[in-house]
Amino acid sequence: MNVQNGMIPIVIGITGHRDPRQEDLEALRSSVSDVYRRIRENYPDAPLFVMSSVAAGADQLCAEVALESGIGVISVLPMPVEEYRKDFDGEDAVRFDRILSASQDCFVSLDMEGFSPNHGPSDPRARDYLYRQAGLYIVSHSHILLALWDGKEGSADGCGCASIVRVASEGLRRVTTGSQLQTARTPVLQIVTPRRSSPDAALTAGEMIFHGDRSATEKILEYTNTFDRDCCIDAKTSPAPDTESVPDPVMNRLLSIYNTSDKLSVANAGKYRNLLVMLSVFASVLTMAFLLYDEMELAWMIVVCGFMICALFLVNAVSRQSQTFDHYLEYRMLAESTRVQTYLRSAGISCEVAEIMPWSIQATIPWVKYAVSVAMIGGQAGTRVSILDPWVTGQKDYHIRALERTSAKMDHNNRIVRIALILTIATYIATLVFEIIWGGLFSGKALLDADTLNLFRFYVKVVLGTLSAITIFTGNYYGKQALPDVIDGHRNMILLYEEAERQIMQNGESEPFLIRLAENELAENSNWYAYQSTQGLDLGIS
Q1: pTM of the predicted protein model
Q2: Which of 172-176, 416-420, 452-456, 502-506 has the lowest mean pLDDT?
């Protein structure tokens, strides 16, 4: 699956009956083509792929329509090509070879359930199991399952179209080393497909029925499209990172997505900080202008107040419209998730981050889960390498450096607070001395005329009022960055990786241990997202 610039493809999984009626083929092709067209129109920035096991009948029909439409096809086979081809004859065999030769990617499905029977590939029991694994792989790595299905319920453990639809609707129980995990449900777009073997006159071939939460699905696809649009914009201004030297195409894709999402997250964080600075400046000017209007009776200052209020509304609107803060957090979560996934794949572990992602992330930003899942489409990992240095030691050293930077930042902020406090006290003392000596606070006899006293008092009000406005704003927004929580987070991660180093040195890099390590890191990322998501700019303006 060739995707440029770290983009996330939208993947349509295919399942369907092997025996659609001949007289329905044109209606089915038209409906399938209409689905592809609508997705392309609604999400034009996202690459579109179709994933199919290329079985005779509906699978081949959908793959052929995709190729005719210029859409990439990913062929996920239940068994090696030489063995799988025995299931085809005549024109179906010709289509099979033609689709495989035109596919962007072709590989044998991974074992999704881990209960592979001890039978040869020619044994019907083993073949049914392998067919089911291919179907489950497609369900688990697609944004939408396009089902050319007659609507009749299938068995929970079967390998046919109805059973795969059932798994998509109910969820898949996948067993990985050390854990049993529930994957998210996959929405199903049904194209009603009557069968030759069990005809039903009440069915209308080509009718579309959506099974699942349509609104949630549309949001996932829209967020994916937005990320891809940002990728395209970024690619025009900066060269893509060099990842072509990586021999594993899946690893190459993960690294590309990590580099792009990391860069976009940093860029959005910078934009958000700029908005906060603008907000601080406008709020301070507004305070000063109102004090000048109120104390010096400068009528034209009310116009400046109006401009500043409009500016505040504009900054708030830009923040909401651009979603820079949300993109900063969500792209950061995508970067961290793909980074953990690269380590697991480097270690030769088949466990996918999408399966062990904390529930809070799945519920709040589900598009990230789908993004990491489709990024993993491909064959098994290659040679296993040690990840002690790049993952455990490398991350420990990173958090040590980050702890030092964050601690220095908090010390800097504390110094600013102390300076502000000293200035406030100094201003108060100077004002008190002035009032005692020249204002006649205790003697009742002022040494200065009324105009001079009023002018001095006016300047004091302006200074104190402006300092108060700045202090309140910075305390409310910049102080909300939760530096103590960030410091605690870095300390916790240092302890985690120190313990991981110790256990690896003692027991080696076992698969169950590395999966638990990944789960702990993902959980910590989830905690970071939870408290950072409360720090967003909010003026209370709807």
Answers
A1: 0.85
A2: 172-176
CA neighbours closer than 13 Å in the CB half-sphere of residue 459: 9
State the pLDDT confidence band at 132, using cuts at 50, 70 and 90: very high
Strands (DSSP E) contained in 22-113 are 48-52, 72-77, 105-108
| Two tokens, residue 371 | 């993004």
Q: How confident is the model at residue 118 (pLDDT cuts 50, 70, 90)?
A: low
CA distance linking residue 122 with residue 15, whole number of Å: 23
Give the contacts of 74 (CB within 8 A, at least 6 positions apart).
1, 11, 49, 50, 51, 52, 103, 104, 105, 106, 377
Alpha-carbon span 504 to 175, nearest angstrom: 24
Residue 13 neighbours by CB under 8 Å, 6+ apart: 51, 52, 138, 139, 141, 142, 144, 145, 146, 186
Mean pLDDT of the chain: 86
Residue 485 pLDDT > 80? no
Cα–Cα distance, 303 to 293 (Å, whole number): 10
Helix (H) or strand (E) holding 12: strand 10-16
What domains can you pick out in the chain, each with its CATH number? Answer: 10-234 (3.40.50.450), 249-532 (no CATH)
Element containing residue 179 per DSSP (H, E): strand 179-182
Would you state the pLDDT for residue 542?
46
Spatial separation of the C-alpha atoms in residues 433 and 377, rounded to whole Å? 75
Indicate the helix (H) or strand (E) that contains 343. helix 324-346
The size of the chain, in residues, is 542
Cα–Cα dist 29/259, whole Å: 39
Per-residue pLDDT tens for 526-540?
988 988 887 766 555
CA 250 to CA 93: how far, in whole Å? 29
* Angle (nearest 5°) at CA 278 between 273 and 284: 125
User: How would DSSP label each residue in 459-495?
Assistant: HHHHHHHHHHHHHHHHHHTGGGG-HHHHHHHHHHHHH
Contacts with 211 (C-beta within 8 Å, 6 or more apart), sequence order: 165, 169, 187, 188, 189, 190
404 class by beta-carbon count within 10 Å (0-12 exposed, 13-18 middle, 19+ buried): exposed
Q: What's the whole-number mean pLDDT along residues 334-362?
A: 92
Which pLDDT belongs to residue 472?
A: 55
| Cα–Cα dist 415/491, whole Å | 23
Nearest partner of 423 among 460, 476, 474, judged by Cα: 460
| Residue-level pLDDT at 448 | 82
Helices 366-375, 214-237: inter-axial angle, 10-degree rounding: 60
